[in-house]
Amino acid sequence: MSNTVTNVVIAGLGGQGVLKASDILAEVAFRAGLDTKKSEIHGMSQRGGSVNSDVRFGSNVLSPMIPSGRADFLVVLDGDQVDVNRHMLREGGVLIDPDKIDVNALANRRSLNVAMLGILSNHLQIDLEIWLDSIKANLPEKLHDTNIEAFKTGRNAAGD
Amino acid sequence: MVSDDTTPAERLLLSGNEAVARAALDAGVALGTGYPGTPSTEILENFSRIGGLAQWAPNEKVAMEVALGASFAGARTLVTMKHVGLNVAADPLFTSAYTGVTGAMVIVTADDPGMASSQNEQDNRHYARAAGIPMFEPSDSQEAYDFTLRAIELSEKFHTPVFLRVTTRICHSKTVVIPTCSVPAPQKPEFIRNIKSRVMIPAYARPAHKRMRERLTQITDWNERSNLNQTIKGNDDLGIIATGISYAHAREAAPEASFLKIGLTWPLPIKTIENFTQSVARCVVIEEGDPVLVETLLAAGLKVEGKDPMYRFGELDVGRVRRILSADTSPEPAPAKGKPPQLCPGCPHRTGFEILKKLNCIVPGDIGCYTLGVLPPFEAMDTCVCMGASIGVGLGMRHVLPDEEARRVVSVIGDSTFVHSGITGLVEMVYNPPKTGHVVLILDNGTTAMTGLQEHPGTGRKLDHQPTNQIIFEDFAKSLGIERVEVFDPTKEAEKFERALAEALKSGELCVIIARRPCLLAVKKIREYEKQAAEANAHE
Ligand SMILES: Cc1ncc(C[n+]2csc(CCOP(=O)(O)OP(=O)(O)O)c2C)c(N)n1
Ligand code: SF4
């Protein structure tokens, strides 16, 4: 049963939009009709401490938390947070770290979180339309353009 | 709002907190009250956002009393708090089990095993047994929705307050919810006098206690016959009894096992459980926190095993459940060390801690963002126990320390915390003044920052940020007869602030110093609310 579940850990520091990114990803999976669970610890995150969020989707998801060593993807928004989260990745799992994106290519650095989802999207078989709709559903209208740009930058940057 | 069979079912992705709020709305809850506290805070915020009437009370005790009054009057109510909040509300709680309620009263206790954002990891399942109040424990957002409705139903059927116990992973995890509400429409509130069940003088309380115990017996029968406890047939070698989030972890850890998931966990459906234990060769209880369930089952003579005491600490997860099942007590790998939270750069609390450190103060502290003043580079906090304790603890120290040490003691408390439970401490200071005097420093950043920027009675705005009456701390302190009351902007008037604190310590008087400057994350929002209020005024 568990082999039909995709596990994504998103990690970074408070204020980087880790939770926003995981909200968007969870909504993408949900809109694609999959059973979806998302879990995180928040509270006190505004003071720049470590934040991570687990997103799981598939035919039937049980625990909302990804067991250590079982993440298929580890998306990290801050370079220093790679090592503390690496243990979550399974053998052969994919690490998506901020080196994969040139932040200067983004209209706004704050949309790094969404740009990273752009990279991730290349690995998942989900319609582009659903990604764009979910981004819009989770952000105020005035941020739609920059974030959709950022998403596409990420989606096109995938040089791994 | 009863669902119409012809429309396709709505399918939502909700956090546990959102699901509770949605259920409360669908069931026509007339009033939601509470006090912020991670992980419960978003329940009332969401209830308000989707159209419910939700209010922050000054603290959990008042919140529960307001909810109790509304349910005496026949309304459906929801009262929310974090686990330690229930300690504050424990006094009305225990006696409300005697008085019972007329409309529904659902008490949400949000526990925090692992202490993601709390000062202890107390297990509030003990309260259900101690107070004689039924308790539901959802295992995902769907059940958070469904059990809120069932709790309302049970509360009205048996005229009892009912607990909904959630934990951090239920509150803050999003899972799929199909909301279907079958609860009949609420009654219209009206006052019906019922002195013998609501006035707890001993003569009326003695029979009320007996009624409460009889009610629990009836609810036990009801629970045995209900569909709240789910059996999942797997193989006969291993049976697992689980509740709440532990159920989700255990299903993943041992997919082949047989399961009994208990939904109404107090009073327990002992016969159902006994039947289950007899259907399997080995029966393990998987529960997070204290061994509450396993000890009750063992006391009832059932053949079950629990977990090694090492798993009493912290949250459970799939890996830890596997270890429990294989009785693995080898040391666990240390959790990955992330970056700890810090006061934001430019946080108005910073100046205060710099000064306290410089003046070598002894600092009984309190709970809020400012508790981070304990970490380097400040290390300017000496105690932190519970909300409001800074003042009492500071006074206690002042009473017994040698004079030269007593004179260094400053109680430090945030604005929301001051309203929550610092007010009675200030009264104590006036009533039993230490001979060296005392200094209370209120760090007033105009919000409840720690839990995500909630309003409180000192901000002059309600939960939905609409204007209301404002408590002015300096006027309040002066009204108690405290003469030395000073207010500073800690950033703009740092030097004056430091001088005033040094003089206050020397003076031997009772002093209140208020450092007032809005939290950096709140400042823009506060300006916006003030602008909206001014515009609304201009239109009148
Ligand atoms: C009894 C109880 N209720 C709620 C909480 C959660 N909580 C911790 S601190 C705090 C208030 C913080 O606000 P404030 O005192 O204004 O300090 P700030 O975070 O703004 O610096 C709350 C609600 C708690 N720890 N204990
Ligand atoms: S959230 Fe506000 S009060 Fe808390 S550390 Fe940041 S600036 Fe200070």
Structure notes:
With 160 residues, chain A is of the alpha/beta class. Chain A has a single domain (6-155), classed as Pyruvate-ferredoxin Oxidoreductase, domain 3 (3-Layer(aba) Sandwich), CATH 3.40.920.10. Chain A has helices at residues 18-31, 82-85, 112-121, 128-138, 144-157; strands at 6-13, 35-40, 50-58, 71-76, 89-96. In chain A, strands 2-3-1-4-5 form a 5-stranded mixed sheet, covered by helices on one side. In chain A, strand 4 (71-76), helix 2 and strand 5 (89-96) form a beta-alpha-beta unit. In chain A, helix 1 (18-31) crosses helix 4 (128-138) and helix 3 (112-121) packs across helix 5. The model of chain A has no long low-confidence stretch (mean pLDDT 92). Chain B is an alpha/beta fold and 540 residues long. Chain B has 3 domains: 12-225, Rossmann fold, CATH 3.40.50; 230-325, Rossmann fold (3-Layer(aba) Sandwich), CATH 3.40.50.920; 349-539, Rossmann fold. In chain B, the strands form 4 sheets. In chain B, strands 3-2-4-5-7-6-12 form a 7-stranded mixed sheet, with helices on both faces. A 4-stranded mixed sheet of chain B has the order 9-11-10-13, sandwiched between helices. In chain B, helix 1 (16-26) packs across helix 2 (42-49) and helix 3 (60-72) runs parallel beside helix 5 (90-99). The longest helix of chain B has 24 residues, at 202-225. Chain B is globular, with a radius of gyration of 25 Å. The model of chain B has no long low-confidence stretch (mean pLDDT 96). The interface between A and B is large, with 37 and 38 residues. Residues 343-344, 347, 349, 369, 445, 449, 519-521 of chain B line the site of iron/sulfur cluster.
